[in-house]
Design a protein that fits this description.
Elements: H1 5-21, H2 28-35, E1 40-46, H3 55-65, E2 66-77, E3 93-98, E4 104-109, H4 114-123, E5 126-135, E6 143-152
Parallel strand pairs: 1-2
Antiparallel strand pairs: 2-6, 3-4, 5-6
Helix pairs in contact: 1-2
């Protein structure tokens, strides 16, 4: 079966994007976000790349792809979940993800409170319009999720 030129061009563009961002990006959507054509009215991430990719890289890519007045909605694990505390600097923390076979793998996670997310968003031309702390009814008093909405200036 012959392979057309467009998939090859897309693949090369994705590789260039991954090299520029300095990451091994496996998510097609993330590659398209940084390097594909087109702009969006809204972008959302539900426990996705936000918080797992360096904010200065990801938020800049998102801002470039949003139309003027476009909206970014994202949810991240709340930095104060289970009695933890938000990061006091801009470095990621080590966290773990549990795989289906119950092994735990280390990951880097940026765990900011709404104020610090607001500062990172502002550097890329986005402004927080809403920040909600969501709680699980049986896990009080700790919030479990931080839901942030931002708008492009």
């Amino acid at each position: 079966m012959p392979v057309g030129a467009e998939p090859v061009r897309r693949g090369r563009r994705a590789l260039r994007c991954a090299e520029v961002l300095g990451r091994d990006l496996r998510g097609k959507r993330l590659l398209e976000l940084g390097c594909g054509p087109g702009r969006f009215d809204a972008i959302y991430s539900v426990f996705g790349a936000v918080g797992l990719v360096a904010p200065e890289l990801l938020l800049a890519a998102i801002s470039r792809r949003l139309k003027p007045a476009g909206v970014l909605d994202f949810s991240v694990p709340h930095p104060a979940r289970a009695g933890r505390h938000p990061s006091t600097d801009d470095r990621p923390r080590e966290d773990y993800v549990t795989m289906p076979d119950h092994t735990r793998l280390p990951i880097a996670r940026w765990e900011f409170d709404a104020r610090r997310w607001g500062a990172h968003l502002a550097r890329t031309g986005l402004r927080i319009t809403s920040a909600l702390e969501l709680r699980h009814p049986r896990r009080d008093p700790w919030p479990t999720t931080l839901l942030i909405t931002a708008r492009k200036r």
